[in-house]
């Protein structure tokens, strides 16, 4: 695909990226204790019925239908506990004391809650009408044997892993972790913990990307900071291309005299696009190296974080085989203040979603929206997403907000 000098929309950029990605096919077998965040490579089929037997949903008494309307006390003929079922003879005209999860005795037609009876040494007196089969969990009611419990492409979390464990399955087949090589570029970069020299700044973008990649379940190869030297950059790109599925650089994708990344990418691979109608984040590059995909993030910290969040994460999810990946949850609310905006680029301002005095959700700005003000992520809890051709927003106007996910404390 030929690169274009035109500004393309975020939606178009994302569509172009995802349309070219083929999920990796390599797999790993991992125990459930190591499965959190991994992507299923195969369907999970249930080897058994869940529950595996009819059991009581309440503490109470097991009854036969013939005794539902008994007026005289029903003697208690035995007890059933979870793991200790009643196995003796069940005489007619009696009941069985039963606890939640215990197998219901053969012939049981309903379980009445203990709160709905009066108990004495003579037995129980029923105080409420009984429905056939009430308070009985039927075998296979939750999951039937051989049913597809989770499909390939499902990301495993604390919502899925206990279900798999309940089926007696101890390990799962998952897609191999996507491997991502990360480096930053620029003579001005200094590492945190070291003193700053004249004109230097601390290298925060690589740290930000590294942390977000690890928290999203990807394997990171951190190649450090690279000076603005064409030979060094070329060597780093070649090394990264050999060891990773995706290469992410930070800085060097704008049009400055010392921004060599684009030039080197033209030599080593192909850049599909590198200018977005997006703010922050105009200079974002996407392309292909010999063995890997390439994403070039802007040098400004907020721009790097926003483009990674909005573009790189969905691309990595597709590469890992994850299905059902949706964009961030958006709401339509009113803004409490004036928001500055020039037409031409879709804007992702950082905002604070909160309830006003009337209990209605509204959004306010975190303040300075400069692409260097990373503290806006700490102050906010959402993006205020303003349309490409929209101009200034006045107080009381409707806007879309996109809630931060866990990476920004959402």
Structure report:
The structure is a single chain. This protein has about 400 residues and is an alpha/beta fold. The chain has four domains: about 10-25 and about 175-320, Molybdenum Cofactor Biosythetic Enzyme, Chain A, CATH 3.40.980; about 30-50 and about 145-175, Molybdopterin biosynthesis moea protein, domain 2; about 55-135, Beta Complex (Molybdopterin biosynthesis moeA protein, domain 3); about 330-410, Beta-clip, CATH 2.40.340. It is built from seven helices and 26 strands. The chain has a six-stranded mixed sheet with strand order 16-13-17-21-20-18, with helices on both faces. It is elongated, with a radius of gyration of 30 Å. About 35% of the residues are buried. The mean pLDDT is about 90.
Short description:
The protein is of the alpha/beta class and about 400 residues long.
CATH class of the largest domain: Alpha Beta
C-alpha end-to-end distance = 36 Å
Helix content: 10-25%
The overall number of domains is: 4
The CATH architecture name of the largest domain reads: 3-Layer(aba) Sandwich
User: Structural class of the helix and strand makeup?
Assistant: alpha/beta
Strand content: 25-35%
The name of the CATH superfamily of the largest domain reads MoaB/Mog-like domain
Which fold does the CATH topology of the largest domain refer to?
Molybdenum Cofactor Biosythetic Enzyme, Chain A
The rounded Rg comes to 30 Å
- Record field, number of beta strands: 26
Determine the mean pLDDT: 92
Tally of DSSP helical segments: 7
Pathway: Cofactor biosynthesis; molybdopterin biosynthesis
Domain MoaB/Mog: 181-318
InterPro entries: MoaB/Mog-like_dom_sf (IPR036425), MoaB/Mog_dom (IPR001453), MoCF_biosynth_CS (IPR008284), MoeA-like (IPR038987), MoeA_C_domain_IV (IPR005111), MoeA_C_domain_IV_sf (IPR036688), MoeA_linker/N (IPR005110), MoeA_linker/N_sf (IPR036135)
Function: Catalyzes the insertion of molybdate into adenylated molybdopterin with the concomitant release of AMP.
């Amino acid at each position: 695909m030929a690169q274009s000098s035109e500004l393309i929309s975020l939606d178009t950029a994302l569509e172009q990226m995802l349309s070219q990605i083929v999920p990796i096919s390599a797999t790993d077998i991992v125990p459930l204790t190591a499965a959190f965040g991994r992507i299923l490579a195969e369907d999970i089929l249930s080897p058994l019925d869940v529950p595996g037997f009819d059991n009581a949903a309440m503490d109470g008494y097991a009854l036969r239908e013939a005794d539902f309307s008994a007026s005289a006390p029903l003697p208690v003929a035995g007890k059933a506990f979870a793991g200790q079922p009643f196995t003796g003879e069940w005489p007619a005209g009696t009941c069985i004391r039963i606890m939640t999860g215990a197998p219901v005795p053969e012939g049981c037609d309903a379980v009445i809650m203990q709160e709905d009876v009066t108990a004495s040494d003579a037995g129980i007196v029923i105080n409420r009408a009984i429905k056939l089969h009430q308070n009985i969990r039927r075998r296979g009611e939750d999951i039937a044997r051989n049913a597809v419990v989770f499909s390939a492409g499902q990301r495993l979390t604390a919502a899925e892993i206990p279900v798999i464990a309940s089926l007696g399955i101890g390990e799962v087949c998952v897609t191999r972790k996507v491997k991502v090589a990360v480096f930053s570029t620029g003579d001005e970069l200094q590492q945190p913990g070291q003193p700053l020299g004249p004109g230097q700044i601390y290298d925060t973008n690589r740290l930000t990307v590294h942390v977000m990649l690890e928290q999203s379940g990807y394997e990171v190869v951190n190649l450090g900071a690279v000076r603005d030297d064409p030979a060094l950059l070329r060597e780093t790109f070649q090394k990264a291309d050999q060891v990773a599925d995706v290469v992410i650089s930070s800085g060097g994708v704008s049009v400055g005299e010392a921004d060599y990344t684009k030039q080197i990418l033209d030599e080593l691979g192909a850049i599909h696009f590198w200018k977005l109608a997006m703010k922050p984040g105009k200079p974002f590059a996407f392309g292909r190296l010999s063995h890997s995909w390439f994403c070039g993030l802007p040098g400004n910290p907020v721009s790097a974080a926003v483009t990674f969040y909005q573009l790189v994460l969905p691309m990595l999810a597709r590469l890992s085989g994850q299905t059902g990946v949706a964009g961030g949850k958006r709401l339509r609310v009113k803004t409490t203040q004036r928001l500055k905006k020039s037409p031409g680029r879709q804007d992702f301002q950082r905002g604070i979603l909160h309830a006003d005095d009337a209990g209605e959700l509204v959004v306010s700005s975190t303040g300075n929206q400069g692409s260097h003000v990373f503290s806006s992520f700490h102050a906010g809890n959402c993006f205020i997403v303003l349309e490409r051709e929209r101009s200034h927003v006045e107080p009381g106007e409707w806007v879309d907000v996109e809630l931060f996910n866990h990476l920004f404390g959402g």
